[in-house]
Amino acid sequence: MLLAMQLIKKSNLQIQIIALAVGYESASKFTAAFKKRFGKQPSQFR
């Protein structure tokens, strides 16, 4: 999840691509897990 955070902040990759890169099958599952961990949706960190 920390890798995902770094990719969100430092790259222009789509959230869906980042989700796949860190092992999630869908962007919605990734977004839910990310929000539970960090308290915000991935798009709010851009």
Helices and strands, with pairings:
Elements: H1 2-10, H2 15-21, H3 27-38
Described by the principal axes of the CA atoms, the overall outline is: globular
Overall mean pLDDT score?
A: 97
Characterize the main sheet.
none
| Amino- and carboxy-terminal Cα gap | 16 Å
Judged by helices, strands and strand pairing, the structural class is mainly alpha
Share in helix: 55-70%
What does this protein look like?
The chain has helices at 2-10, 15-21, 27-38. With 46 residues, the protein is mainly alpha-helical. It has one domain (2-41). The longest helix is centred in the last third of the chain and has 12 residues, at 27-38. It is globular, with a radius of gyration of 9 Å.
Q: Nutshell version of this structure?
A:
The chain has 46 residues and is an all-alpha fold. The protein has three helices and no strands. The two termini are 16 Å apart.
Short descriptors:
about 60% helix, globular
